[in-house]
Amino acid sequence: MSIYLSQLIEAARDLADITDDPHVEDPTIVRWANRGIERAYKIALVHAPSIFQTSSLFTLVGGLGQNTVAVPANLRRLVHVAKDPSNPSLRRTLRQYNADEKEGTASLAYRREGSVVAIEPYTACAGSYALYYIAGPTTLANLSDPLDAALETAAEYIETYMAIKCLQKEESDTRELREELAELKSDLEIDFTTLESGTAETIVDVDNVGNRWPWDCVP
């Protein structure tokens, strides 16, 4: 069952005992919700990075100026690029080329250059590709926006963080909630580690030339 921003706010206000307090307005608590989500995301990323790994397919026509693709808006870390991802007999992971070999690479290779990923040599890059990357969490803005499914187990942690911020604004004591937050963090680390240990890798790159393994990619 999805957990929505409205539920996070309601739970945080209840924890902080400010259900009817007008001093903490919704835009402020929404900002705290997203900060809490970011904190939970970073915990998850250390212990279970694969749950945020996803991919994006793209096609290049090749030629000068036709060898790049824009990185996804939610990309946090590029893992690797594969050529012909839908063809089992041809699929292969490209190596990442160094900046000083851009003009001299003989085999297909990739490199992130600002907001795009470039494939070289541009004269031979026509074809289909898949970009594998670690995605960031969804930013919540509307009360009906759902928390990412991968972070639903961290809902109580996020709500407690939000409640602490509410109490800080009122200059109230937060010691009890901070202790609870620390316990929730420890529990999350165990939960995410357990989840990661039970996650099977579906893409195996036996060469992995010049790349880091997907589960090592921690921003």
Structure commentary:
The chain is an alpha+beta fold and 219 residues long. The protein folds into 2 domains: 5-49 and 137-197, no CATH class; 53-135. The protein has 4 helices and 8 strands. It has helices spanning 5-16, 26-47, 155-169, 175-197, and strands spanning 53-60, 68-70, 75-83, 92-93, 95-96, 109-113, 116-120, 127-135. It has a 4-stranded antiparallel sheet with strand order 1-8-3-4, with no helix packed on it. A hairpin with an 8-residue loop joins β3 and β4. α1 packs across α3 (155-169), α2 (26-47) packs across α3 and α3 (155-169) packs antiparallel against α4 (175-197).
Summarize the structure.
This protein has 219 residues and is an alpha+beta fold.
Largest sheet: 4 strands, antiparallel
| Apparent shape | elongated
Helix content: 25-40%
Helix and strand sequence:
HHEEEEEEEEHH
Structural class by SSE content: alpha+beta
Number of strands: 8
What is the total domain count? Answer: 2
Low-confidence stretches: 200-219
State mean pLDDT (0 to 100 scale): 87
Distance between the termini: 29 Å
As a whole number of angstroms, the C-alpha radius of gyration is: 22 Å
Q: How do the strands line up in the largest sheet?
A: 1-8-3-4
What's the total helix number?
A: 4
Strand percentage lies at 15-25%
